[in-house]
Design goal:
Layout (H helix, E strand, L loop, with lengths): L9 E5 L2 H4 L45 H15 L3 E5 L2 H4 L10 H16 L3 E7 L5 H7 L6 H17 L5 E5 L11 H8 L9 H26 L4 E7 L3 E3 L4 H23 L4 H10 L7 H9 L4 E5 L4 E3 L20 E2 L5 E2 L1 H15 L3 E5 L17 H19 L5 E4 L22 E3 L11 E3 L1 H11 L6
Helix pairs in contact: 2-4, 6-8, 8-11, 12-13
Bound molecules: 6-O-phosphono-beta-D-glucopyranose (BG6).
6-O-phosphono-beta-D-glucopyranose binds next to loops.
Length: 474
């Protein structure tokens, strides 16, 4: 076996609290924004309701009931040989309203128990502080991340988590896919990232940049808090990396694709370099955006740069210049004739993963961590309780081949590989259960009906061999 990956390479899987825990009112948990999102589909956006509407189904209230099944689920992950398991801490379990001064002990105890269970099997918890959820009260009372007060409120949450768990958790991330809101015309993306619901007449792009700024400052502050509590903690950012290819070799398309990449990934520049890139400062001036960015903020950004860059990789985009230079994700993307898509229209592009790993290494010179990758697909549980998901194995194998080339041939410094939804859970974009990613099947339908029994899929046994061979046996 050739030794591609370094010792301690973190093979495992990833999930997020609101997509699988369920138990949305247990252990003193408060309502979160994820609790207000209805069931949607590929063609119908999830509704973001202000109150819980009687008679409406909210998939995140149930998740896959991990809250009550986690011991059995962790055991299955241990059986696959996981070295690491990424989840998030539901902010509303720790601070039910977000702005309390003291945390909820029952919420803290739940994560203590979960982390202990993982560590019992030698599985490292890898933790995101804010993965598409915040206490609902922070939206109602403060307007979400449109409000500067959230920086202090988040710092309190981060402090409590680092203080409580620093002996159990080494790898942390601040905001999941902070750059999704680049697509500010997508209500769900802005709501999940920033808890903002636009009103008629809002300058959506300006509001997005302002909220993102507060998040970037909060993230930098969290990095400093973590290091002050325990210098061995590793705190990363988390980006959704979708390479954006030019639609043709026309110079305008090339330049436009470059600008589109800069727009989606400036978040990483700020996280890593601690400064805003020149082009964006010029853009703010050109747009007349007089954002609330103080000298103190800029100091915090400088002092709170991340230790590593974590990212999700699912798909690539292709952009075409059409007469304007500011990238609009909702209208500037075109189909790529060389690439197929999954049933939800997500482009399947394994080579793009090697591109991603090289692009980030060259730009940021930081260790990288793949904390999401995977295929959302319809699975069928056979009468004898099997799932033959060869399509998922093919997808993952093709991506792992590219990942290995990036590490072995291109010298990328990679910490680990944590594919998404290692156990079936609620889809973030659609709220469906039937958009499945897992190695473990959960018997539950889109409306939370089913036995909730867990069954290993064929990919479970395949991934177990991959891990046991440190990636040699694909
Ligand atoms: C990422 C998110 O966007 O992709 C996850 O970090 C999400 O929360 C995953 O679940 C897959 O997306 P979806 O919409 O298929 O669940």
């Amino acid at each position: 076996m050739t030794k591609t990956f370094k010792d301690g390479f973190l093979w495992g899987g990833a999930v997020a609290a609101h997509q699988l825990e369920g138990a949305y009112q247990e252990g003193g948990k408060g309502l979160s924004i994820a609790d207000m999102m209805t069931l949607g589909s590929r063609d119908q956006a999830r509704e973001l309701t202000d109150e819980i509407v009687p008679g409406t189904y909210y998939p995140n209230h149930v998740g896959n009931d991990f809250y009550h099944h986690y011991k059995e689920d962790v055991k299955l992950m241990a059986e696959m040989g996981f070295k690491a398991f990424r989840t998030s801490i539901a902010w509303s379990r720790i601070f039910p309203n977000g702005d309390e001064t003291a945390p909820n002990e029952a919420g803290l105890a739940f994560y203590d128990d979960l982390f202990d269970e993982l560590l019992k099997y030698g599985i490292q918890p890898v933790i995101t502080l804010s993965h598409f959820e915040m206490p609902l009260n922070l939206v109602k009372k403060y307007g979400g991340w449109a409000n500067r007060d959230l920086i202090t409120i988040f710092a309190r949450f981060a402090h409590v988590c680092f203080e409580r768990y620093h002996d159990k958790v080494k790898y942390w991330m601040t905001f999941n896919e902070i750059n999704n809101q680049t697509n500010y015309e997508s209500d769900i993306s802005v709501y999940e990232n920033s808890g903002i619901k636009f009103k008629a007449g809002d300058d959506k792009q300006k509001l997005m940049y302002q909220a993102a700024h507060y998040e970037l400052v909060a993230s930098a502050q969290a990095v400093q808090i973590a290091h002050a509590i325990d210098p061995s903690l590793q705190v990363g950012c988390m980006l959704a990396f979708c390479p954006i290819y030019p639609a043709s070799s026309k110079p305008e398309d090339i330049l436009f694709a470059q600008r589109a990449m800069d727009s989606r990934l400036y978040f990483g520049d700020v996280h890593v370099n601690g400064t805003y890139p020149n082009w964006l400062q010029a853009y703010f001036t050109e747009k007349g955006y007089d954002l609330d960015i103080t000298d103190r903020d800029l100091e915090i950004l400088k002092k709170g740069t991340v230790d590593y860059v974590a990212f999700s990789y699912y798909m690539s985009f292709t952009a075409k210049y059409s007469g304007h230079w500011d990238y609009r994700e909702y209208s500037d993307l075109v189909a790529n004739p060389y690439i197929k898509s999954n049933d939800w229209g997500w482009a399947i592009d394994p080579v793009g993963l090697r591109y991603a790993l090289n692009w980030m290494t060259t730009r940021w010179h930081k260790p990288l961590f793949i904390v999401e990758n995977g295929l959302g697909a319809y699975d069928k549980l056979t009468a004898d309780k099997q799932v033959h998901d060869d399509y998922r194995i093919d997808y993952l194998r093709d991506h792992l081949v590219q990942m290995e080339k990036a590490v072995a041939d291109d010298g990328v410094d990679l910490l680990g590989y944590l594919p998404w939804g290692c156990i079936d859970l609620v889809s973030a974009s659609t709220g469906e259960m039937k958009k499945r990613y897992g190695f473990i099947y959960v018997d539950e339908d889109d409306y939370g009906r089913g036995s909730f029994k867990r069954y290993p899929k064929d990919s479970f046994y395949w991934y177990k061999k991959v891990i046991a061979s440190n990636g040699a046996n694909l």
